[in-house]
Design goal:
It is an enzyme of class 1 (oxidoreductase). Keywords: FAD, Flavoprotein, Oxidoreductase. Its EC number is 1.3.8.1. InterPro entries: Acyl-CoA_DH_CS, Acyl-CoA_Oxase/DH_mid-dom, Acyl-CoA_Oxase/DH_mid-dom_sf, AcylCo_DH-like_C, AcylCo_DH/oxidase_C, AcylCoA_DH/ox_N, AcylCoA_DH/ox_N_sf, AcylCoA_DH/oxidase_NM_dom_sf. By secondary structure, the protein is of the alpha+beta class. It folds into three domains: about 110 residues, Orthogonal Bundle (Butyryl-Coa Dehydrogenase, subunit A, domain 1); about 120 residues, Butyryl-CoA Dehydrogenase, subunit A, domain 2 (Beta Barrel); about 150 residues, Butyryl-CoA Dehydrogenase, subunit A, domain 3 (Up-down Bundle). It contains twelve helices and eleven strands. The strands form four sheets. It has a four-stranded antiparallel beta sheet, covered by helices on one side. A three-stranded mixed beta sheet has the order 3-6-7. A two-stranded antiparallel ribbon has the order 1-2. A hairpin with a 2-residue loop joins strand 10 and strand 11. The structure holds flavin-adenine dinucleotide (FAD). Flavin-adenine dinucleotide binds next to strand 3, strand 5 and helix 12. The site of flavin-adenine dinucleotide has 21 residues, from strand 3, strand 5 and helix 12.
Length: about 425
């Protein structure tokens, strides 16, 4: 009786040579440039411009690198880069990749010519660096993006959009050359009545509000962005007016067809589109931090002697390290799977992107906490890097969707129910 299947080739978990080369290249930069600068910029709580300049010089901070990795058919280029860079340091890592969130937003919602016009301006070039910010969150609209109040109104006479409102928690906000702003164009449609806009460098009416003093990732700049009658050309609406009008008409028809049509379903909401593409990449950042803390704790546990033997010879310590390594590898596999699925255009039937970010974020917090414990008193001091890593890890269950929101997305996706 012949078996009802053909002999299958084994899937490979090995990276190809291109990815190994990429990994080694970013790792070397992390070792040579990022690590030595980490403590200094964390203490200063300032944007690390000289480090960004070094990243630009080797092409790591460049539009070419962003484009090449975005078109990687396996989807693994970005997670590999993120993990290595954030293994170096998360605050500096975020300063280097913060721009890519805005660039990904333009890539997700802009026309081809808008991508060609704006994305290169977000990076600049060595000696003339530019950075960008993606501004969605507001004081009263964090997890609940549908509560957004920043308003964009169209001035037909001048073919301009006028933006008013306050954005908060924006990475690179106020110091960026280009800001991508999400705003309400039709308040009645709630999350479906929003659109994204590019605010070019030097536009009047955009200013930085409060700069936040943070618990971790302190080399990354986080601030409010205030929009006060900020006028931008009609061409700065991402996707164009025609497409927006079509989308709004569809949303109005949906709303009219169903009285509950403007609630939680946010598939066409622009911030959501961006987050879908970026979640596995953010998960990879968390994996990098966790791996850095694990690496440090492993070596420390082999060296540190108490009761006449290295502390790793106690099962309590060795098993903790075994669990740390296991969760890091599990997190990486979830991240790579989600990134691969996104690159293949596969449907996330179980919210695998959210899953990867959820698990990697929680892992980073657990593993960095365990690493501090393994270092004992030294783990609690700023003399040792795991203290900084533990502070940095804390953001990974908060930004780009809190862990609770990731669970909500996963639960709704697997159940098809309106879980609240
Ligand atoms: C350092 C940093 C950088 C950031 N960078 C950016 C950026 O570049 N651009 C940008 O737009 N935003 C950015 N953010 C904002 C970030 O995405 C938000 O902080 C995040 O989405 C959570 O929103 P919130 O802070 O208003 O918390 P809230 O939404 O007020 O949530 C508070 C708590 O309530 C929980 N909660 C809320 N709703 C529910 C629910 N339905 N079910 C269960 N629990 C719930 C949350 O999980 C959380 O624990 C950044 C934030 C920080 C701290």
């Amino acid at each position: 009786m012949p078996l009802p299947f053909a002999i299958m080739t084994t899937p490979s978990f090995d990276l190809g040579q291109d990815h190994l080369d990429l990994q080694q290249w970013v790792r070397q930069f992390a070792v040579d440039v990022v690590r030595p600068a980490a403590a200094e910029w964390d203490e200063k709580e300032e944007f690390p411009w000289p480090v960004l300049e070094e990243a630009a010089k080797i092409g790591l901070y460049s539009v070419d690198f962003f484009a090449t990795q975005s078109f990687d058919e396996t989807g693994l280029g970005i997670p590999i880069t993120m993990e290595e860079l954030f293994w170096g340091d998360a605050g500096i890592g975020l300063a280097i990749v913060g721009t890519t969130l805005a660039a990904a937003s333009v890539a997700a919602t802009g026309t081809e010519s808008q991508v060609g016009e704006w994305v290169p301006q977000m990076f600049g070039s060595p000696g003339d660096l530019k950075i960008a910010a993606f501004c969605s969150s507001e004081p009263d609209a964090g997890s609940d993006v549908g509560a957004m109040r920043t308003r964009a109104t169209y001035d037909e006479a001048s073919d301009e959009w006028v933006l008013n409102g306050t954005k908060t928690w924006a990475t690179n906000g106020g110091i960026a050359d280009i800001h991508v702003i999400t705003a309400v164009v039709d308040p009645e449609l709630k999350a479906r009545g929003q659109a994204s806009f590019v605010i070019p460098s030097g536009t009047r009416g955009l200013s930085q509000g409060q700069k936040f003093a943070k618990h971790g990732i302190r080399a990354s700049h986080t601030a409010e962005v205030v929009l006060d009658d900020c006028r931008i050309p009609g061409s700065c609406l991402l996707g164009g007016k025609e497409k927006l009008d079509e989308r709004l008409a569809k949303a109005r028809a949906l709303r009219d067809a169903s009285s509950s049509g403007t609630g939680g379903g946010t598939r066409s909401q622009p911030s959501m589109a961006t987050f879908e593409r970026t979640r596995p990449a953010v998960g990879a950042q968390a994996v990098g931090i966790a791996r850095a803390a694990y690496d440090y704790a492993l070596e420390y546990a082999k060296d540190r002697v108490q009761f006449g033997r290295p502390i790793i010879e106690n099962q309590a310590i060795a098993f903790t390290l075994a669990d740390m390594k296991t969760s890091i590898d599990a997190a990486r596999l979830l991240v790579w799977r989600a990134a691969w699925m996104a690159s293949q255009g596969k449907k996330f039937e179980a919210a695998e992107g959210s899953m990867s970010k959820l698990f990697a974020g929680e892992t980073a917090i657990k593993v960095t906490g365990d690493a501090m414990q393994i270092l004992g008193g030294n783990g609690f001091t700023r003399e040792y890097p795991v203290e900084r890593m533990a502070r940095d890890a804390r953001i990974y269950t908060i930004f780009e969707g809190t862990s609770e929101i990731q669970r909500l997305v996963i639960a709704r996706t697997i159940s098809g129910m309106q879980i609240r």
